């Protein structure tokens, strides 16, 4: 089937089976590989994208349900929060293997867009769905605070 | 040929002899590499300076080729730090690249083959990469001297700029082509530590930018070749099972499926893209032959292991008559421990991209032991070693998982490519993708193990004797590494961290026994130390408790001959305020352990939630890993090592029911998450000793430090892991 949706501000048409997860459509049909496969069952957050600004698990979104949807992936992350997050991530050398970080960055960006000055509890709540097997959590937490300061400054 | 088809997997395994031959060849190659053949001359016309570890390009970038896989430990950046420092390049102009398979140029000098593991990257490459940087600098300077007609001694290089007091300047890139024509100095002068500009200071990771923008072609799973197909493989759900028969009629109907093959490891679904390959695989009807499979449950396997620890085993360490010493003791403490199978759970599941035209084969993946992978590919495809090219890609974690001794991903894709060829399929590159379920249920676990300890004490509370029996499946026995690592029939990987302890016990004996099972096992971040550190360090706290001593004081008393361990222990204790009272509801535990040449002490501070579960609030770590090449990366690795170990100790185990794996994904094998992560403080001991590893050593002490804190709070000793079993999570 053919589905038209907006990805990173551009209209894109996907030709694939309607049950194809957005994750695989992005990666295989559109060659956008920044969105990662980690679990396929909504347990890790590696596949996080924004759907109308809300962090969503692209492994669980079937393209058949996405006609007209507005999706942002790591490749299209921009704006004040995303840029502050990416800058803070780079400043603190957050990533190790880096594989989870597209998802972490999109989750953190959504958090800061909603809550510009998050507490540690806010961070726990917003980020607990994003697994990092390298356990870069301490730096992610610190980088979110740094990004919050950057957005203020 | 027929024989090969019938016994394909055995054929694929590098025989011991081949491995030794490969090792010998590679060692010979290493000597050549040390002399640095002047390959630069050939590239001179291009204006590029190309030595095995350093490429200086006309665009003024300096590529440092890491001979080691980078799986997140900052290895490539660490090696680049060495080159950049000796070459006096700027941080900005450095780019990180991963070297392809080439044992002549890129062998790990501690392995004799090209491979990464055992936290050896920095220790084996520290001098080599500094020399490479220094040689490049000498050639640049010598080229500039000729070009400018000035004495080489008057030329300086700083932050990538070559200059002469007369005012002449040039970039490294501008001089690259000329420098390439210079002789490679055999023994270039190295900087003295006071001249270092990056080493021991700061060299931020050059791979971080890519990893924050979702850059393409970083990981194997992202890598694409024109016309590439994607495959999944249905592998036996029980370890050691094989395909008896299968029905692919439903699977074939899935649009996008191209072909379905039986290969030695299972049934492969080849499709135009990933989703059809995943979907169609679920529709395969496969009957498995379990006659050689593991059909036991992990409980039964643990009973067997426990039983093995009660019987005499292979002697690993024998100081004297331990039974007599125990007999003569006033008091004997007996403790049994058991540890489960653990999956590595690297964030990127396994994957591999390959293509084969009948004569030559090329692979793109995060190969961790390139020389073994290379050899297996050549053997299975029946082509010469030099017709195989392995390109190393970045890895989304590994923790040991990609360092297989049997090169099973290469073996599997090679068999699949042969099958595709035999079927007369059009030549197309292929990618094999593993799902998380494939990864979790696919074996290559940290072995489960049972430990039996007896500690003798005299009337004054002094330790008189330690007897230690361990049973587990050996990672080394029967593998390609057996000749290298098990020369005396003993698997030292299994007992490392205990048999070589520096606690001065009057008598310590240690024996080991090997379980036989088709469940494949593998090194898991810190290998034997994952269990021995837990046993030794909780044992120390039990001795302290039993004899009324302070845990730190007891350790210091028994570590008199180990100044470096003493140092880190004292430092961690001091920074954690060991002697100061804790706030209400907080409890402390300590552990100190040496692994892979590095010393780490950790003090864990815990509390209990209202529901009685444990929360690790803070960990204070002290580390001595020799010269700290990149202090911030050392901190990062200790943070990550603590988190990785903590997640496992809290709630990870792989269990089998009748041979079937119960934990199949992150919903049942629950990872450490943000809200579990303690605050971590890492203190680095200044040192002038040669650098040692840091990818693994942060992991072993965390389990026992937390267990000791729990015991300090509740007098409850956890001896059966993970902590979920004790209701603490
Ligand atoms: S891949 Fe979607 S949540 Fe893990
Ligand atoms: S950085 Fe490796 S999984 Fe997060």
Explain this structure.
The complex is a heterodimer of chains A (153) and B (729). Chain A contains 5 helices and 5 strands, in the order ββαβββαααα. With 153 residues, chain A is of the alpha+beta class. A 5-stranded mixed sheet of chain A has the order 2-1-5-3-4, sandwiched between helices. In chain A, helix 2 packs across helix 3 (101-114), helix 2 (80-91) crosses helix 5 and helix 3 crosses helix 4 (120-127). The termini of chain A are far apart. Chain B has 729 residues and is of the alpha+beta class. Chain B contains 21 helices and 27 strands. In chain B, the strands form 7 sheets. Chain B has a 7-stranded mixed sheet with strand order 10-11-8-18-15-16-17, sandwiched between helices. In chain B, strands 13-21-20-19-14 form a 5-stranded mixed sheet, with helices on both faces. In chain B, strands 1-2-3-4 form a 4-stranded mixed sheet. Chain B is globular, with a radius of gyration of 27 Å. The termini of chain B are far apart. The relative contact order of chain B is 0.11. At the A-B interface, helix 1, helix 2, helix 3, helix 4 and helix 5 of A face helix 9 and helix 20 of B. One FE2/S2 (inorganic) cluster sits between chains A (95-101, 132-134, 136) and B (72, 347, 397).
What descriptors fit this protein?
heterodimer, A: 153 residues, alpha+beta, Ubiquitin-like (UB roll), DNA polymerase, domain 1, 5 helices, globular, B: 729 residues, Aldehyde Oxidoreductase, domain 4, 3 domains, seven-stranded mixed β-sheet, five-stranded mixed β-sheet, 21 helices, 27 strands, 21% strand, disordered N terminus, binds FE2/S2 (inorganic) cluster
What is this structure's SSE topology?
The complex is a heterodimer of chains A (153) and B (729).
Chain A: E1 2-7, E2 10-15, H1 22-29, E3 48-51, E4 54-57, E5 70-72, H2 80-91, H3 101-114, H4 120-127, H5 137-152
Parallel strand pairs in A: 1-5
Antiparallel strand pairs in A: 1-2, 3-4, 3-5
Helix pairs in contact in A: 2-3, 2-5, 3-4
Chain B: H1 2-6, H2 8-12, H3 16-35, H4 40-43, E1 49-50, E2 54-56, E3 62-66, H5 75-87, E4 94-98, H6 103-106, H7 121-148, E5 156-158, E6 161-163, E7 169-171, H8 172-179, E8 229-235, E9 242-247, E10 257-263, E11 266-271, H9 274-282, E12 285-289, H10 298-309, E13 314-318, H11 322-327, E14 331-339, E15 351-356, E16 361-365, H12 370-381, E17 388-392, H13 408-422, E18 430-433, H14 436-441, E19 449-457, E20 463-472, H15 482-485, H16 492-495, E21 508-514, H17 529-547, H18 551-558, H19 563-575, E22 587-595, E23 598-608, E24 614-624, H20 631-651, E25 656-657, E26 660-661, E27 679-684, H21 702-714
Parallel strand pairs in B: 3-4, 8-18, 16-17, 20-21, 24-27
Antiparallel strand pairs in B: 1-2, 2-3, 5-6, 6-7, 8-11, 9-12, 10-11, 13-21, 14-19, 15-16, 15-18, 19-20, 22-23, 23-24, 25-26
The structure holds FE2/S2 (inorganic) cluster (FES) (2 copies).
Organism (chain B): Roseibium hamelinense
Pfam families (chain B): MoCoBD_1, MoCoBD_2
GO molecular function, one term (chain B): oxidoreductase activity
